[in-house]
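Async update (no meeting this week)

Hi team, since we skipped the sync, here's where things stand on the single-chain job. The sequence we agreed to prioritize is pasted below, unchanged from the tracker. I ran it this morning and attached the output directly underneath so nobody has to dig for it. Comments welcome in thread, and please keep replies under the output.
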Amino acid sequence: MTIKKLQNIVSVLKDWLVSIYLYQKGDVQVPVFVVEEVNFVFLNSIRSFFVREKFIILTQDDINEWNDVFCLKLLHIKNHSELFYGNDILLHIKFIKSDLRSALELEIRNKRIQLREDYLSQDEGRAFLKHLLPGMQILREWALLLKSPDIKLPKDIKELLSLFDVAWSCNSQIFYYLIDDNVEERKIPSLIHDVHQYLSDICIKVNDYK
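Output:
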């Protein structure tokens, strides 16, 4: 979404708009709109601003009342965003570690199930590997934030891997092969099996974390 379009939205939504964040989600910058309330009758009049765009719309209640079940997503937005407009309401949001731990365990278990389904349904194993890394990177960031919510996360993916391995006593060597795209075609099924086991091991560590 262009800056000009964001500025137009500010001028139209100013009575409802609390904040706009620019959320760096992988290679894409996604605007996050925080509004007082969602009024579809009014928003319908400016749908042209949003058609074919990537964006997130949250209300203040979503942030204040859902931060127990929505905590990982909010924490990731907080740590990967810059304020574009309005009040920085994410700055002082508090997270409870037990909520973060439970949410992270659920995400890892879902990732294991998704891994089985997605890999077996894909025609090309190598194409699947390329889509595996971003989700794994987010899981590692969440795991590091669980232990140290104020940690400054490195942008380099290999630095993140190294930091994660130290913090959680893991061995992420297989992911260096993925990052460098240095995997032989015949070894892909074995590597996927190792990733599945890797997730299982992390899930045990997170489950045991107090």
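Quick observations from my side:
The mean pLDDT is 85.
The two ends are 41 Å apart (CA to CA).
Reply here if anything looks off.
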